[in-house]
Design a protein that fits this description.
- By secondary structure, the protein is mainly α.
- It has seven helices and two strands.
- It has one domain.
């Protein structure tokens, strides 16, 4: 019960203080991601999955050992995100809007993050279901992937190497570009 309270409190404050709609698009993209999993699960297994609310969001629980095609269920979540990203990109070619731009990048980031070879993410589950070598070494591979992610975050957030000026410049450029269209 405590984790649900924390989850919904975080969602409330995230939505309340979300001036650029980034948090709203994160929630929408996450719901689309999970809907992709659920739709594939219903199509493949012909039943409704159990969905659990945790502090990290919604988690679909299903027995991984019951079907050889569950890697398809796992793949459908990221496929929904990359599809939404591509559609947003195509729509941006005709008219730029900041909301569509943010929606595109949120979906791209959710896709890329979920396809990392960390066992608890979709990419790790797909590798685990399809390849015996990953089953033997998934703890080592997941640990190395998390170490690389941590190093990348520290590098990007360090004072010596900061993407903030680059991102601010790009944002300013795209906002001004949208005024010209």
């Amino acid at each position: 019960m405590k984790s649900r309270f924390v989850f919904f409190t975080a969602v409330f404050f995230g939505l309340y203080f979300d001036t650029l709609n980034i948090f709203k698009f994160c929630i929408l993209s996450s719901i689309l991601h999970e809907a992709g999993h659920v739709a594939a699960y219903i199509i493949i297994l012909k039943q409704m999955p159990k969905i659990k609310i945790t502090i990290f969001g919604f988690v679909m629980q299903y027995p991984r050992a019951n079907s050889k095609n569950l890697w398809l269920v796992t793949l459908c979540g990221p496929l929904v995100n990359i599809t939404a990203c591509c559609i947003s990109f195509l729509l941006l070619q005709s008219k730029f809007t900041l909301n569509l731009y943010v929606f595109m990048w949120v979906n791209a980031v959710i896709f890329a993050f979920n396809m990392l070879p960390v066992y608890y993410l979709d990419g790790g589950h797909i590798l685990y279901d399809k390849f015996a070598w990953y089953q033997r070494y998934y703890r080592i591979i997941s640990g190395m992937a998390m170490a690389v992610m941590a190093a990348a975050v520290m590098l990007v957030s360090s004072e010596k190497f900061s993407l903030r000026p680059v991102l601010a410049t790009l944002l300013y450029f795209f906002i001004n570009m949208s005024n010209d269209i």
